[in-house]
Specification:
alpha+beta, Sulfite Oxidase, Chain A, domain 2, Immunoglobulin-like, 3 domains, 18 strands, globular, binds the ligand Nc1nc2c(c(=O)[nH]1)N[C@H]1C(S)=C(S)[C@@H](COP(=O)(O)O)O[C@H]1N2, binds molybdenum atom
Length: 479
Amino acid sequence: MLSAALGVAAAELLAAATRPAAGPLVAVGGAVIDATPTPVKEFAVRTLGTYDKPVLLGSIVLVLLLFTAVVGILSAHRRVAVAGAAVFGIAGAAAALSRPAAVAYDAVPSLLGAAIAGAVLMFWAPAVPAAPGRRRFLRTALLVAGGSVVAGTAAETVKRIKGGAVAESREAITLPTAADPAKPLPGGIAPGFYSDKLYRVDTALTVPRIDAGAWRLKIHGMVRNEMSLSFADLLGRPLIERDITLNCVSNEVGGPYIGTARWLGVPLAPLLAEAGVDAAADQIVARSAEGMTIGTPLGTALDGRDTMLCVGMNGEPLELEHGFPVRMLTPGLYGYAGACKWVTELELTTFAEFDAYWVRRGWAANGPVKTASRIERPQPFARPAAGPVTVAGVAWAQGRGIRTVEVRVDDREWRKAELLPVPSSDTWVQWRYRWDATPGLHMLSVRATDGTGETQTEQRATPYPSGATGWHSVTVTVE
Ligand SMILES: Nc1nc2c(c(=O)[nH]1)N[C@H]1C(S)=C(S)[C@@H](COP(=O)(O)O)O[C@H]1N2
Ligand SMILES: [Mo]
């Protein structure tokens, strides 16, 4: 177990210094995420929320400890031990090479780690039975354990220093003001319109850390003029600023994976016009630094909506976890279909030619947002006093807008809620309804009608494969 710890720590150190994504723990974790069947992934996200990643890494360490313990018990014979180390090394290397953004030498950290673990076992294991007592065993054990701690700490330190440099480069950025700024809201912005903290959903086990100065975006594929843009090139173009609500297709009815922010970015349509897109193309495949692929229908970049390459959010450069330095944003599409974070490449292609990451896993190729609504107040199982109670929440149908929101108490009639002003059809709408609450157990339900006049269906659907449907309800006891 100790020799494995030293091997893993050494591999992590080498990876941290050269290619962070090639570290065995993150590589195996990434491979596990990609290989996990969709229902299991859904279950993990539902039950663990944002703890899914620490839990996964912890499980990998646990499995590693278990396996190494078994190999250790079987390794009175040193060949078994060395073979065990080789198996771990090859597994780590294979995982690193399976990463979509991998290069051939990403195998090196795991293989080197395995070689170190193997060497320790070769020179140490035979000495153990022959040792005159426990003292020599303990001394070597301490040495190896100490080495692992030093290498592990060094790996963490290297990561922290590199991460700090990227964070500093982010802080040094001054964003230009938008040529086309966001519209002021009629009547001002009500509290809660902007999310305090935008939800985070991605497959990245560690947040990619990209230096804005070194970042480039390549536009290629079915275009006449391939383009390569730097971050400064983007900032030099006319910027737009928009309030847009982003939500995740994995959001359950009433769920938390939705939020609104003020985004600053470069509209995509003029860039694509400069690139000269082939008339036969129908898909933009956005690729990110860590190898995600997100397929966005080309039409959604050209139909007049504010599809953009974002550089700013709420007056600041993007947060690292929300895609720094640049991400895509397509109003009206779920994140998996239009909001590639850490984007480095836009390839013009066709849907017939290429299935993006989530499409390969059975999710719908086009990801239009479904009309939905949520009750935020009162909370489930609240115990409000009888009398006037404010029922409030949000409703959304980005692109189509919300025409009406209705609230129902138990199985009485649907009643119209009051809608607060919005800057455009691309954000959620805040609504409220004054309820004269009577004592007892009550169920409150909400449904919205979008700008085309279509009302949310009551029919329940799971998030997979194209977004949840059904009315959100909350049960409360009025005292
Ligand atoms: N590179 C990358 N971009 C990504 C994802 C991802 O896993 N990797 N997830 C997508 C999904 S499913 C959603 S819902 C949004 C979430 O964006 P946020 O984390 O900034 O809220 O990012 C999208 N962009
Ligand atoms: Mo998502």
